[in-house]
Write a sequence for this structure.
């Protein structure tokens, strides 16, 4: 007996006018066999004519919807909005640039039907990625795993299926500093990984600049634990220990050694190292205070200016 269910596909799109139709050409045949589906594009304040393209798509096929932001709020917020607007029994998120092959959705839905609540994907290799992107992405997963204590597998992106109950959990999380990848792992449930080969971005260029990636990495490292703050305790203890030993040496020199005027080099290095360490730790503390500051404002996470679908 074929169970009836609805599939939601959520696609954040920022300046993807040239990719939307080629994506739909591959995606719709994959979704056709299912009883009911919806495709929700989240236009993240695109400056090109993405919105016009989406409007036309919606007029041709009323299963295709869009939610358009008043400005660019960022990929993570677009994803979150899509999950909030989606009404399917499962919610699949994917990129608009065809790097996430639509054909994989069949596999994801099958695994979900087998009883998994989260089906996430692991990128095998990226034809697109240069050495810089590969290295930063490697460091990113390492740093995140170290600080969060969550074993986020290398190469997981926001290409995954969420069961309705997992989607509800994500939509109910009120935090403003979004790092969905980590939150999905933190959440638990029955999770299953499937592997895929990432394709080349169809048109346009990646809008994840190095500075956006660094910001995401810092957010990932700091928003899941207070481990970075604890680094201050260990670092402080270590430096105090060295300080104690050095003081003993200085006292010994003063009492028994005679000359104590020499030592400009050691003095300078102590001042410089200590100054650096203190600034670094203040930066980390500042990062946390900044997050508290942002959270206390309780601003909306995104602002919708136009939509073809109502929030659930
Ligand atoms: N994206 C978005 N808002 C942004 C940047 C990107 O919604 O501010 C979307 C973009 O349209 C794409 C996905 O997020 O569907 C991934 O972005 P991109 O391809 O630029 O990143 P990369 O694949 O290089 O990580
Ligand atoms: Mg991409």
């Amino acid at each position: 007996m074929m169970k009836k269910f609805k599939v939601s596909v959520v696609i954040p799109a920022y300046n993807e006018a040239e990719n939307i139709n080629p994506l739909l050409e591959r995606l719709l045949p994959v979704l056709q066999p299912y009883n009911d589906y919806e495709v929700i594009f989240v236009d993240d304040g695109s400056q090109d004519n993405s919105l016009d393209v989406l409007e036309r798509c919606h007029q041709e096929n009323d299963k295709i919807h869009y939610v358009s932001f008043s400005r660019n709020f960022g990929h993570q917020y677009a994803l979150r909005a899509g999950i909030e607007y989606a009404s399917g029994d499962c919610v699949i998120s994917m990129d608009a640039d065809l790097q996430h092959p639509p054909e994989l959705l069949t596999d994801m839905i099958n695994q979900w039907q087998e009883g998994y609540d989260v089906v996430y994907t692991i990128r095998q290799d990226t034809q697109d990625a240069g050495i810089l992107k590969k290295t930063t992405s490697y460091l990113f997963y390492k740093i995140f795993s170290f600080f969060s204590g969550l074993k986020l597998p290398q190469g997981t992106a926001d290409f995954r299926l969420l069961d309705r109950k997992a989607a509800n959990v994500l939509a109910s999380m009120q935090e403003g500093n979004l790092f969905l990848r980590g939150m999905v792992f933190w959440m638990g449930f029955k999770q299953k990984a499937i592997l895929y080969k990432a394709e080349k971005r169809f048109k346009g260029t990646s809008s994840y600049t190095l500075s956006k990636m660094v910001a995401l990495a810092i957010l990932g490292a700091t928003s899941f634990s207070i481990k970075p703050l604890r680094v201050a305790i260990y670092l402080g203890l270590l430096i105090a220990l060295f300080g104690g030993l050095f003081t003993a040496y200085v006292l010994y020199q003063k009492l028994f050694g005679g000359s104590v005027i020499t030592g400009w080099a050691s003095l300078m290095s102590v001042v410089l190292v200590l100054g650096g360490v203190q600034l670094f730790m203040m930066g980390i503390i500042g990062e946390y205070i900044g997050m508290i500051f942002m959270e206390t404002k309780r601003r909306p996470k995104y602002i919708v200016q136009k939509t073809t679908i109502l929030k659930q």
About this structure: Residues 95, 97, 99, 201, 206 surround magnesium ion (ligand 2) (CB under 6 Å). The chain has one domain: 7-224+299-307. Strands lie at 6-13, 36-43, 64-69, 90-93, 118-126, 156-163, 191-198, 304-307.
